[in-house]
Design brief:
Helices cover 63% and strands 7% of the residues. The chain is an alpha/beta fold. The protein folds into 2 domains: 89 residues, D-Maltodextrin-Binding Protein, domain 2; 192 residues, no CATH class. The protein has a 5-stranded mixed sheet. Helix 4 links the parallel strand 4 and strand 5.
Length: 340
Amino acid sequence: MRLRRFLAVVVARNREFYRDRTSLGWNLLFPLLTVLIFAFIFGGGPADQYKVGVLAPGNDLSAARHPFLETPHVRFLAVPDEAEAIGKVRRHQLDLVIDLRGEPRYWINEESPSGRLAERLLRATASPPAGMPAREAVQGRVVRYVDWVLPGVIATNMMFSCLWGVGYVIVRYRKNGVLRRLQATPLSPFEFLSAQVVSRLFVVVVVTTLIYVLTDLLTGFAMHGSHLVLALVFFAGAACLVSIGLLVSVRTRSEELADGLLNLLSWPMMIFSGAWFSLEGAHPLAQAMAQAFPMTHLVTAARRVMLDGAGLADVAPELALLAATTVILLAVAAKLFRWS
């Protein structure tokens, strides 16, 4: 008898799940999309052994001419900015940078083992010896993966907190009748949404500050820029992510649909933003798509402040884009919002 009751509950729950087409569709679609996205980004042959930046004429790698560029198992990347490229050599993010815009020259970090091996390959292709580019050595500590990934980890945590802490909660309010009761008060949609934004920003700021301090105590990560500029970057990013969560919730009535929509937004942002892995050398279309996501600009700005010591003027384009996106999304959300 007990077994029959137990099985009846199991069958009823399974039927409820299968009849919810939104949840069922997302459970089938999500893993397929994830696999296809990773196959698209990282598709190709075996991984190259060395990564070399190339300062090419007109920033066009196909216009560069040197026997070294024919070396197999080396990934050659066009780098538009000389100072930024040299900085990556200092931090061991590039094994070598070669300038082919005029008289050939190259930069190498003598503390990098892979850089010294890449230099041997360069020497092997420079025939006769007179064709060897001029050598310039730089020094710098290696950037640990924890130093590089930390901005992405913080931004990812902020993303989930902002999207679900606002979007999912408001949908639950609507389903439980809370919004209908609030509609009977003098509270306007703009006031309600603004309160949600301020409340979530306060939570995100406090939690992010604690994570930053505790992580620094545990790992002693690199921080070369201003804490004030970094705080401004995270604040602008959080406001933008909250506005996305609001936009999802303004008309949605089903918690299952809200959860699916938020997942549909969050996973591409996390994958394409460069939070966990670099998109350098990825498919050009993937790099172009990444620029459409606010998370990309948040992670990029935070990483530039922490690793490169970028100032307010350096990250101003990212801040302006995040702020403009926030204003537009909040205006649209306030216009479309419905209490019921």
